[in-house]
Design brief:
By secondary structure, the protein is an alpha/beta fold. Helices cover 34% and strands 13% of the residues. Residues 237-241, 258-262 and 293-299 have low confidence and may be disordered.
């Protein structure tokens, strides 16, 4: 592929050259001859290649040789300031503006690439820069969430657009010169203006916020019972379950008569009480309540019948044997009396 050569006037921020760089082949196309004859008010001889080259160079180098290469319909203000109306025609009239993108020819090549190169005029560049700064950047920033470097990224986005729009050069086939008019002005034909519009709007880049940071969750290795650390962990867990909570001594009710009392005290206690009067104290309530589902299911309260109290064998062994031992007024010494009545 031959190298893409452009003059210095096509560089970014370069002023318009006094003369356009035109390179013609050894044979002039008939359509070019007819186009030059149509636009010239004064008839000029066009019998040779140098004459065609001189006529075309002078025509394109004129200060009035400004081409309209595209037209853009853009908002007049940011989206929050646009007028709302039920009639879409009213909204279009008050909220949108038509910007005509103008350019001038900086290069014509009919030898290597058969192309013509356009560069935007300073007025068109300024209009697009103002729109990008005052409207496009405002809408783009409003449509993205905030982060610490958002303003800096918006500023950087605008600076990149300024560089890109100044470097913008549209290249197309030399047949575009058929749209040449008087005084060197012209307009792109055959749908080329839509291609220019697509290329220019491609310079309006979106504002890309940074991706969310991925937080690495550091998980400790699982503790297995076979590992030393796991064995320690299991022993600690069992220890915490098996060791009961401390209970104050005065809250514990003894479940049996005190073993520290003497045998005489126990004998007198049991002798003075009848069979129906002896009652063993109920077991003391445990300090740790067992698991119960009473909080989730309703049940009637439990009723426990009193357990008849019986003397302990050890207490009976300490008393003297005989028929005189009585339990609540009933004695064995009156056995004969009860036996005769039976």
């Amino acid at each position: 592929m031959p190298p893409q050569l452009l003059p210095a006037s096509a560089a970014a921020f370069a002023p318009r050259a006094a003369s356009v760089n035109v390179v013609l082949s050894s044979k002039v196309e008939p359509w070019l001859t007819q186009t030059l004859k149509r636009i010239n008010r004064i008839k000029r001889p066009l019998n040779s290649v140098p004459q065609h080259q001189r006529c075309l160079t002078e025509t394109l180098s004129s200060s009035t040789a400004i081409w309209t290469i595209s037209s853009l319909m853009l908002p007049k203000a940011p989206e929050t300031e646009l007028r709302k109306d039920s009639n879409p025609l009213v909204e279009a009239l008050f909220n949108y503006q038509l910007i005509h993108v103008e350019a001038y020819i900086v290069h014509v090549d009919m030898v290597l690439r058969n192309e013509v190169a356009f560069k935007l005029t300073p007025d068109s560049i300024e209009s697009l820069i103002d729109y990008h700064k005052e409207i496009y950047c405002v809408d783009t920033a409003a449509s993205t969430y905030s982060w610490s470097e958002k303003e800096m990224q918006v500023k950087k986005l605008h600076e990149e657009f300024v560089q890109a729009i100044n470097k913008f050069v549209y290249r197309t086939h030399v047949s575009a010169l058929e749209g040449l008019e008087e005084d060197g002005a012209g307009e792109l034909l055959c749908g080329k203006s839509d291609e220019v519009k697509t290329n220019i709007m491609g310079l309006f880049l979106p504002l890309l916020p940074p991706p969310p940071r991925v937080v690495d969750v550091v998980r400790p290795p699982p503790l297995l019972p076979s590992s030393p650390a796991g064995a320690n962990w299991w022993s600690q867990s069992n220890l915490s379950v098996s060791v009961p909570a401390p209970v104050e001594s005065w809250r514990v009710i003894p479940s049996s008569p005190s073993t520290t009392s003497s045998s005489s005290d126990s004998q007198s206690l049991w002798a003075s009480m009848g069979l129906n009067e002896i009652q063993l104290p109920s077991p003391a309530p445990s300090y740790s309540q067992p698991y119960s589902s009473a909080g989730y299911f309703y049940s009637s309260p439990q009723v426990s019948a009193p357990i008849p109290s019986l003397p302990l064998p050890s207490m009976l062994a300490q008393q003297p044997c005989g028929v005189g031992i009585g339990y609540g007024g009933f004695g064995w010494d009156r056995y004969q009396e009860y036996a005769t009545t039976m």
